[in-house]
Specification:
It is a single chain. Helix content is 33%, strand content 29%. With 233 residues, the protein is α/β, with parallel strands linked by helices. The chain has 2 domains: 4-96 and 190-214, ATPase, nucleotide binding domain (Nucleotidyltransferase, domain 5), CATH 3.30.420; 97-184, Nucleotidyltransferase, domain 5 (2-Layer Sandwich). A 5-stranded mixed β-sheet has the order 3-2-1-4-5, sandwiched between helices. A 5-stranded mixed β-sheet has the order 8-7-6-9-10, sandwiched between helices. A hairpin with a 5-residue loop joins strand 7 and strand 8. Helix 3 packs across helix 7. It is globular and about 50 Å long. The N and C termini lie far apart (36 Å). Residues 223-233 have low confidence and may be disordered. Belongs to the KAE1 / TsaD family. TsaB subfamily. Pfam families: TsaD (PF00814). InterPro entries: ATPase_NBD (IPR043129), Gcp-like_dom (IPR000905), T6A_TsaB (IPR022496). This is tRNA threonylcarbamoyladenosine biosynthesis protein TsaB. Residues 30-175 form the Gcp-like domain.
Length: 233
């Protein structure tokens, strides 16, 4: 695949931007929980200048659609929409949970990843993903927001070893110790635009884009979590 895509994400404590130009990726990333609005646009300018391209030359603009911080997700989508409107670019929303799965593969070659972001209110944003031969990811559990104790109680054992990703594992370590499937500790805590831009390539190739005004977040708070767990569909 050869495309020019800009991606940005502010859904968690991490603020990141990545630019894909003809298979080369230019990245900026910084954990800055309260400075997303100050950091993200300068990062965009830096990667565009480094690559020597203008915003209007791109094929699409990708963004982390959530789940994550309510404010952070809104900031990211709002800034991405503004950029897309100005340059008349289509937009691609990418799951922050799936992006962490891709980050775990990029760093460690993990092909089965269990993602849990601390959602506060004694809950986690949850999703498990298995990597496919073409480089895409297939969801094993539907994304949901769920109390970790309920997640553990309703989990089932399988043959896979799942690499953990996200802040939820440390935040609710005691509750998640009851998980029935096998896990190994991972070090990917946040989604990163570098992985969002990688995943966005597949969506662009499939034509899965939206106009800027139709870009929407994924909050999951209105999801009935226990109905989404294995065996509860």
């Amino acid at each position: 695949m050869s495309a020019k895509i800009l991606a940005l994400d502010t859904a968690t404590e991490n603020c990141s931007v990545a630019l894909l130009v003809d298979d080369k990726v230019y990245v900026r990333s910084e954990v800055a929980p309260r400075d997303h609005t100050k950091k993200v646009l300068p990062m965009v300018d830096e990667v565009l200048k480094e690559a020597g391209v203008a915003l209007a030359e791109l094929d699409a603009l990708a963004y982390g659609r959530g789940p994550g911080s309510f404010t952070g997700v809104r900031i990211g989508i709002g800034i991405a929409q503004g950029l897309a409107f100005g340059a008349d670019l289509p937009m691609i929303g990418v799951s922050t949970l799936e992006a962490m799965a891709q980050g775990s593969y990029r760093k460690h070659g993990a092909e089965h990843v269990a993602c849990a972001i601390d959602a506060r209110m004694s809950e986690v944003y949850w999703g498990r993903f298995a990597r496919q031969e073409d480089g895409t990811w297939s969801p094993v559990d539907a994304e949901c927001v769920v109390p970790p104790s309920v997640l553990a109680e309703n989990s089932t054992a399988d043959e896979q070893l799942w690499r953990t990703a996200g802040t939820g594992w440390a935040a609710y370590q005691n509750d998640l110790e009851g998980i029935q499937f096998k896990t190994e500790e991972g070090d990917v805590l946040f989604p990163d635009a570098e992985d969002i831009v990688y995943l966005a390539q597949f969506e662009l190739a499939k034509g899965n884009t939206v106009e800027a005004e139709a870009a929407s977040p994924t909050y999951l708070r209105d999801t009935v979590a226990w109905k989404k767990l294995p065996g509860r569909e």
